[in-house]
Specification:
Its EC number is 2.7.7.-. Its cofactor is Mg(2+). With 948 residues, the chain is α/β, with parallel strands linked by helices. It contains 38 helices and 18 strands. Among the domains are: 178 residues, 3-Layer(aba) Sandwich (Rossmann fold); 112 residues, MutS, DNA mismatch repair protein, domain I (3-Layer(aba) Sandwich); 52 residues, DNA polymerase, domain 1; 116 residues, Dna Ligase, domain 1, CATH 3.30.1490; 157 residues, DNA repair protein Rev1, C-terminal domain (Methane Monooxygenase Hydroxylase, Chain G, domain 1), CATH 1.20.58. 48% of the residues lie in helices and 10% in strands. The strands form 5 sheets. A 5-stranded mixed β-sheet has the order 10-11-6-12-13. Strands 2-1-3-4 form a 4-stranded parallel β-sheet, with helices on one face. A 4-stranded antiparallel β-sheet has the order 14-17-15-16, with helices on one face. Helix 18 links the parallel strand 12 and strand 13. Bound molecules: 2'-deoxycytidine-5'-triphosphate and magnesium ion (3 copies). The site of 2'-deoxycytidine-5'-triphosphate has 16 residues, from helix 8, strand 6 and helix 10. The structure holds a DNA duplex (12 and 16 nucleotides).
DNA sequence: ATCCTCCCCTAC
DNA sequence: TAAGGTAGGGGAGGAT
């Protein structure tokens, strides 16, 4: 609670504190004196939309009977009370908690907590998981929080702070604000179906929500970022936790005596959670401990051995094709078995994300199909995913380690390398004593076991972890390394998978001992230079790689190879646009720009059956990739989308043959140290820089120091007022107005071309389509024709150059939102030149373009200025007073949406929104004696935790 | 030589 | 039914 004053948070103290205490007081005052029973003790509800009794009434009932009323949905909200909800929204929700208001009434009437199931609104529920939101704070989970140290150290504070702000990938950010005038349209609660194929607009969300691989990838990337931020925030401060541990160890007489004389030795630790998903899952299924368990989407049991299979799917054929194509996989045990048994009739092809060690004893492995696993172990129990839980435990793991050292190389959400040399040096403690303590701490906090290996390089540390698992630790001495390695199979080496193992096997090498006997040259012939070098060293236990603490991202992508079934180009195009939006928002999230766009396609192999064995799977496919080098790096959605569509068209594949689509952005520009000082000023100066190296003579009107002047004058340096001033000023000061109008008219003309109309079609020269090259495999060497195509593309690029230049350059120097806003104001001024404006500034929302303005504000300001928040609030208030409730609703809805999508992790923005919203609610209450129903507020655990 | 594009491979 | 993503390393072969 005391850690809100980092990163400009404190600016928010006032707003935020006010809100917090108000809410708390409200509740405390309302709940205590009037309580009649404890009927709803421990039960919380959130009212979504219009209900009978009303939300207010339900709130009163809950309070009177000891329950909790949530003003917005939280992760731990027990029930959502609703009467009917729009279909679209229902799909995004966990319908198993949505019940009718009547339940509350009936409970009170009978004075007991009734079974809620008869009151479920949606009975054909799907158990979907919320899609990962990395930036969401820890939820108030007792297993995690109760056991953390009572006193909050400084690092602790930073940890908690940063935990909120790390990169995210939330997947449920559309605002749910009920229309004020909502005469709730007729909905069909039971028509709610899951999005089966990518044709359904909800598919992308639904898929990502449920994709384990998406979740672990996102988490992994998040933790790499997290480590960077922790390190940057930490500076040279001491690690408080080290001192505590030292005291503890002194008390227990566990410090090594002679250590001070030892030559400093390097200690690399590798730490990894044991069967991560399973361990997390078992926390809520304690009865299943000790049994063979798997985490999977499939329910398991008999259902999984008698799964419905599409009548036109042919598992036998697919199995054989797979065998032909991926011969090398048949020598990989897991995959070979997957082929041999997995494709048997009616066996579930759902993958096991993680299985318990009891299951492993029966031969079950991570990644195996459920059907096959059930053959190995018919009593295998399955448990569902708990993505939120993985996030929490992963944070706990990282945070625990981070309190001792930040020499951490993040590997994945359940795994990292740590250089312990420093800590050990300071603590003068034996390595394994330290590791024991650390692991115990992780276990205490997470209730999940982990294992750790220590050695003097990463490879051996990994090997040591393998030896240690499960729930153990191991120190691998370098002297023993070569001998130990000799006993190992090849594929246990990191970087050696089924293909390389296969190649080596073909060459007569079947384990590390064999490879140790082989010359470097021979390995090079087999595997290429780099792999040979690595393998040559690794099989001897040598690994010179340093730990990389701050990992710099090199690319970003979004890919879906599941549920891709299109019949028309329009469907495909719609999906491509969605997917472009997805990568784009990820790109924005990391605040970078990309210079290269790659479209990756999975296309049904000619021989492969149209219906895949795995439900909605990609089956056997050929992969194709096509990339485009931009003239300049971009983060413009429209531009990216257009290029993606262009690449797609070039590919020429029929939509119905596609089985997977991915968009990759690479050649990212350098990271900018976010000096969010005054973005708008940067924009102005960028324009003038551009001006210099451009030979076109655009009259530049705003001297760089103009905004500076404004800054000085208008006591607030915020974007909003700057924008407003720029606009107003143009009205009151004709000279300035001329200049500004002049300038923006020029740029606006160019940009309206670029943003509203698609680029002109390229000259119609025959270009061999990408698919042509691919489909007529027999005709041409693909490489030749591809090269030809590439050449062709480049030429076309050059032909478009002049137009393209504008299209690419303009949007990134000045945000279209901003010039549209300003231009519009100026245009209006031109059209109806000017009654002298009174002192009172015009309401921002009078401008038809207010949405852009809002969006720009949210996007450009890392931390919203109180002045701006106030301004927005006052402006909306005006509308309320003016009884323009439709507009108020519209604004709030949009604002909420923007904050949620653009500022997922920024609690100061969440609070800004909440602040405005609650104040507006009050105003509405006061003036109109009614309430704007908001279905879902900003959904962020961190903010919530402040209030509870 | 060195770069680039289009792959393939691996890991979680 | 099922949710087969994502990032990085690196090789082959052509362009420069
Ligand atoms: N094919 C795979 C491999 C892993 N994972 C997920 C689930 C795992 O729990 C998590 C961590 O992967 P690990 O390789 O660390 O495997 P486990 O933690 O499950 O087991 P171990 O005890 O071997 O580390 O990643 C997955 O979804 N699919
Ligand atoms: Mg693990
Ligand atoms: Mg792991
Ligand atoms: Mg391996």
């Amino acid at each position: 609670m005391a850690d809100e004053d980092h990163n400009g948070f404190s600016e928010w103290g006032g707003y935020f504190e006010a809100k917090k205490s108000k809410l708390e007081e409200q509740f405390a005052a309302a709940s205590n004196p009037f309580r009649k029973s404890n009927l709803f003790d421990g039960i919380s509800i959130f009212v979504n939309g219009l209900t009978n009794p009303t939300a207010d009434e339900l709130k009163r009932i809950m309070m009177v009977h000891g329950g909790t009323f949530h003003h917005y949905e939280r992760s731990h909200t027990k029930f959502i009370i609703a009467s009917n909800l729009p279909d679209v929204k229902v799909r995004k929700m966990d319908t198993s908690r949505i019940i009718a208001a009547q339940w509350v009434v009936d409970c009170v009437e009978q004075n007991r907590v009734l079974d809620y199931k008869p009151y479920l609104l949606y009975t054909n529920q799907k158990t979907t998981q919320p899609r990962l939101n990395f930036g969401k704070g820890k939820k108030n989970d007792s297993t995690l929080d109760n056991s953390t140290v009572a006193e909050e150290t400084e690092l602790d504070g930073i940890l908690k702070e940063l935990q909120q702000d790390v990169a995210t990938s939330p997947k449920k950010h559309i605002s749910h604000i009920n229309n004020l005038s909502a005469t709730t349209t007729s909905n069909h609660p039971n028509s709610s179906h899951s999005a089966r194929t990518a044709v359904d607009p909800e598919f992308l969300n639904e898929f990502y929500k449920n994709s384990r691989l998406h979740h672990i990838a996102t988490l992994g990337a998040g933790f790499k970022q997290y480590v960077c931020e922790l390190r940057q925030a930490h500076g040279n401060k001491p690690f408080v936790k080290r001192g505590e541990l030292r005291t503890l160890l002194v008390a227990g007489k566990l410090l090594s005596e002679d250590v001070s004389t030892k030559t400093p030795k390097r200690y690399v630790m590798h730490i990894d959670m044991d069967c991560f998903f399973v361990s997390v899952g078992l926390r809520s299924h304690p009865d299943l401990r000790g049994l063979p368990i798997a985490v999977t989407h499939s329910k398991g049991g008999t259902g999984a051995t008698d799964v419905p299979v599409h009548p036109q799917a042919n598992r036998q054929v697919e199995r054989e094709l797979f065998a032909q194509r991926f011969e090398q996989h048949l020598h990989d045990n897991v995959r070979a078995d997957k082929v041999r048994y997995g494709f048997q009739k009616n066996m579930s092809l759902s993958e096991i994300a993680s299985c318990s060690y009891e299951a492993r004893a029966k031969g079950i492995r991570n990644g195996m199909f459920v059907g096959q696993a059930l053959k190995l172990c018919p009593e295998l129990k399955t448990i569902p995913y708990d993505f939120e839980g993985y996030r929490e435990v992963a944070f706990a793991l990282y945070n625990t380690v981070a309190q001792y050292t930040l020499n951490i190389e993040a590997v994945s959400c359940d795994e990292m390398f740590v250089d312990l040399t420093d800590v050990l040096q300071e603590l003068q403690v034996d390595v394994m004593t330290f590791v024991t303590h650390l692991r115990q701490e992780v276990r205490d906090i997470t209730a999940c076991p982990c294992s750790a290996g220590v050695a003097d390089n990463k490879l051996l540390a990994r090997m040591a972890t393998k030896l240690a698992k499960p729930n153990g630790q191991h120190l691998l001495q370098t002297e023993d390394a070569a001998n130990y390695m000799a006993t190992l199979a090849l594929d246990v080496l990191p970087g050696v998978g089924s293909s390389i193992t296969y190649k080596l096997n073909q060459a007569g090498l079947s384990n590390c001992a064999d490879v140790q006997q082989v010359s470097l040259v021979r390995l090079e012939m087999l595997l290429g230079k780099k792999m040979a070098q690595t393998l040559y060293q690794n099989c001897r236990g040598i690994d010179p790689r340093p730990l990389v603490y701050e990992q710099q991202r090199k690319s970003i992508s979004a890919e879906v190879n599941y549920g891709i079934r299109f019949s028309k180009y329009e469907e495909l195009e719609k999906f491509l646009k969605q997917l472009s939006g997805e990568v784009h928002s990820r790109l924005i999230e990391i605040k970078r720009k990309a210079k290269s766009i790659t479209l990756k396609l999975m296309v049904r192999a000619a021989e492969a059956p149209v219906e895949t064995s795995k439900f909605m799977g990609h089956g056997i496919c050929d992969n194709q990739t096509k990339s485009l080098l931009l003239k300049q790096s971009t983060d413009d959605l429209e531009f990216i989308t257009q290029n993606v569509l262009k690449l797609m068209k070039e590919s020429g594949f029929p939509p119905n043959e596609l089985r997977g689509i991915g968009i990759h952005l690479s050649k990212l520009d350098d990271v900018v140290e976010s000096k969010k000082e005054n973005l708008i000023m940067n924009m102005f100066s960028k324009i003038s820089e551009k001006q210099k190296d451009k030979s076109i003579n655009i009259p530049i009107a705003i001297p760089i120091k103009e905004p500076l002047d404004m800054k000085a004058k208008s006591d607030s340096t915020n974007v909003l007022s700057l924008l407003k001033n720029a606009a107003t000023r143009s009205k009151s000061n004709p000279a300035a107005a001329f200049k500004i109008a002049n300038f923006f008219q020029v740029t606006a003309t160019e940009s309206s071309y670029s943003s509203s109309s698609p680029p002109p079609p390229p000259p119609m020269i025959h270009v061999a389509s990408w698919a042509d090259c691919f489909l007529n495999r027999s005709d041409l060497q693909p490489s030749t024709s591809k090269a030809g195509l590439a050449r062709e593309n480049k030429r076309l690029c050059r032909a478009d150059q002049i137009v393209t230049k504008y299209m690419e350059e303009l949007p990134q120097h000045m945000h279209p939102a901003i010039h549209q806003y300003i231009t519009l104001n100026n245009k209006q001024k031109d059209v109806a030149p000017t009654v002298e404006q009174p002192e009172k500034q015009t309401n921002i929302f009078v401008n038809p373009n207010y949405k852009s303005l809002l969006a720009t504000w949210v996007k450009t300001e890392a931390v919203p200025k109180p002045t701006d928040v106030n301004l927005i609030y006052l402006n909306i208030c005006d509308l309320v007073l003016d009884n323009q409730m439709d507009k108020v609703y519209e604004i709030m809805k949009y604002f909420c949406c923007i904050v949620k999508t653009k500022r997922r992790n920024s609690c100061c923005w969440h609070m800004a929104y909440n602040e405005i919203e609650s104040n507006i609610q009050e105003k509405v209450q006061e003036i109109l004696d009614c309430h704007i129903y908001i279905r879902e507020a900003i959904d962020c655990c961190k903010c919530q935790s402040f209030r509870s």
